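Re: folding output
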Amino acid sequence: MTVNDAVAKRVVGLLTQKNMSQYRLEQLSGIPHGHMQWILSGKSKTVTLSTVMRLASGFGMTTIEFLDDEVFTLDNLDVE
């Protein structure tokens, strides 16, 4: 799985866990709807650290808390 796929998977999991809509996350994170759609659909190939920071903030967590998930372990990621 790519890092971009892992970010999308983490976002979907947190949306479910926190019973939050994608629209609400977009409002809280400041990420435009179109960009969020690209992230969640897997079409985005360049999810940046600043985007991850904004996503974490939208969920009310730190970047470290957002990244503290098994989807981000080296065993699960295709890292070049």
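--- second protein (sequence, then structure) ---
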Amino acid sequence: MSQLIHGHQVMEMIAESENIYTKPILKTEIAIKFGENIRFHTCMCSDLTADQLIEFLVSKGKLFESTEGIIMNEDFIC
């Protein structure tokens, strides 16, 4: 089984960066930092791809898509 990285680590990466991410750029940055085939988990889900994690975080209101790119809702970092 591959290593699972908690989704909070991706949120921390976004929070610490001054970059504006689109979904494709965020996915690329995730692959660079954590690896191409890494899987993610959250408190509610497991074995997520980077795409699935991004969609999950958007669906939970932790990330928002704007015209500028992905914006993190820092109020929801737990």
